[in-house]
Amino acid sequence: MDEEIRIAVVGTGDVAMDHAAALTAPGPVRARIVAAADTDRARLDAFLAKHGAPAGYDDLDVLLDRARPDLVYLCTPPGLHRDQALACLHSGASVLVEKPPALSLREFDEIAGAASGPPWFATVFQHRFGRGQAALKSLAASGALGRPLLAVCHTTWFRDQSYFDVPWRGRWDTEGGGPTMGLGIHQMDMMLDLLGEWTEVQAVTRTQARRTETEDVSMAHVTFANGAVASVVNSSLSPRQESYLRYDFEYATVEVTHLYGYRDEDWRVTPAPRHDRVLTEWKAAMTGPQDAGAAHNSRSGHWAQFAKVLSGLREGTAPPVPLAESRRTLAMVAALYASGASGHPVKPSDVSPGTPFYDSMSGRRAASS
């Protein structure tokens, strides 16, 4: 694909307003927003005015037929993702979807079955693409940090009752969960991007303070195939908000503290005794040549991932994040809910097809579609 990439944005609320411009930012691939859709006309008109899209629709099928986009950016509530993604893929348009990609593993697998590519399907997990994450992955892969031993992955945010009172939030059938699914999934995906395959989850889920069908806090112990163990906390009840990831390797501790997006200066490296060389290697990894997505972005954000998505479309290759890796993150969320409900450790096979938590994050059997 050598010509300009045509983009449609579906769902024009705050997320689209804030991040759609990253799709058309100056870069190696030319792209243009040609259409947008929303059921709220005032919200749609505001988006069209801000982002210069020439056509607005209240019906996705009509948009797909008339605008013929190459890529659809889905910024709608999670309960709409499966049907909308399938409609786009069946029309020949690739899909970039905000998290979570689907309400369940069953829904995700339905989407993946239609996205063997092209057209393609990718989830927005922008924290993978900042310079700090790229440097950490590079050093870990090289062996410079030694074996990963222990991790901490905390998303401790604050959402008051009005947040949960939005009709589609805090419901299994429309959001797919509470802060584990809707908030902490970004930090958990960062952790999995580094540590790889998980093998067991032991969790607690609670509704401590909010009126909601789902949890408002969760805690988990996660074991990885490489032998590392992690403590995971997801909260919507924490007045001092923080996103915190810590990795204790044999030769160093690496940490990042941020809220909704990290900068280079948010990362800290503490070498183990007699391993000061790690600091030199970290500095080199943060300043040396890197891939195009990370090198142009000193903080995590949508631009770096979107640039790679557009490059993939132009080159005819699958955009990041790979389907298998996006599914791995969603499977860990399902395992956390399954363990929280049962009180027992959960392995990947416990959220495989034919099990209740494959069909729904609540463990309820999904109705046949």
UniProtKB/TrEMBL annotation:
Cross-referenced Gene3D superfamilies: Dihydrodipicolinate Reductase, domain 2 (3.30.360.10), NAD(P)-binding Rossmann-like Domain (3.40.50.720)
Region (Disordered): 341-369
Database matches in SUPFAM superfamilies: Glyceraldehyde-3-phosphate dehydrogenase-like, C-terminal domain, NAD(P)-binding Rossmann-fold domains
Domain GFO/IDH/MocA-like oxidoreductase: 135-242
Every Gfo/Idh/MocA-like oxidoreductase N-terminal domain range: 5-115
Record InterPro entries: Gfo/Idh/MocA-like_OxRdtase_N (IPR000683), Gfo/Idh/MocA_Oxidoreductase (IPR052515), GFO_IDH_MocA-like_dom (IPR055170), NAD(P)-bd_dom_sf (IPR036291)
Protein name: Gfo/Idh/MocA family oxidoreductase
Organism: Streptomyces spinosisporus
